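Quick one:
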Amino acid sequence: MMGGGPSKDGIPPTENPNYVSILQARSFLDDNDVVFLVENSYPVKIFPQKILVWHEIVNETINGENVSITYCPLTGSVIGYKGKIGEIDTTFGTSGNLLNSNLVMYDRSTESQWPQILGVAVKGNQKGKKLKKSPVIWTTWKKARDKYPNAIVLSTETGFQRSYDRDPYGSYQKNGTYYDTGGPIFSIMSKDDRLPEKEIVIGIKIHNSELAVVKTKIAKDKVANLSLKEEPIVAFFDDTLDTVRTYSRKIEDHELNFELNNGTIDCRFYMEHIWRIYRGKNERYRIEDYEFI
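Output:
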């Protein structure tokens, strides 16, 4: 690990967040602004990237559980983590350290340190423990508000004075800034040249194995049948939110295959439910966006 510049909580997480309505948020958000969407909350919650770039962590309670929405601008990664470590309930702060140019968080109960992408403690008495994830979707302000007009939006009234109309790293709406050009700012331990350094991928983890799904590929093909550690997976492109959703293709003893047929995604078996894989955790969801026949 190495220091990233700011000291511990020098990048202050947002605590007890305030929210505004979709109508009120129009005053500070543009259509193509990046936002992070939490669908498994009532009401649905929207977290603007232009706020999180200054705070990196929002500590919130969702469905009675501590959940931290974490964003690292250096790696362009957003992940939700549950604040439950065994019997410990906790929230997270920024440690001031980096690992592979990625935010290292600390939990406030034991002060163990957790790299954001790994979600595994690398220092402290929780070393080797894994955090449980909570789903977060990366999308745009227009797509989020169109799909969820009754959602609430993280307010710029955070209790801190920050230039929320300015991104210190550049812009996701313009070419030639840090987000799409050049390599990492801080040193990394290894490098993989199979994809461009700023290629957008969706990460899937099963049984300690990882798979990177290239977003532009799924956006073009709309559906892809994949496998990871002998686990059959299907990836769908969700046009409504400009995101990739991944699921298991195995239902009981059946391994399903999906294909795009005249604009419709077809399968040999009808099913009402399928198992959704979200960064390694299986959760059961009713599928309403697609009809399987």
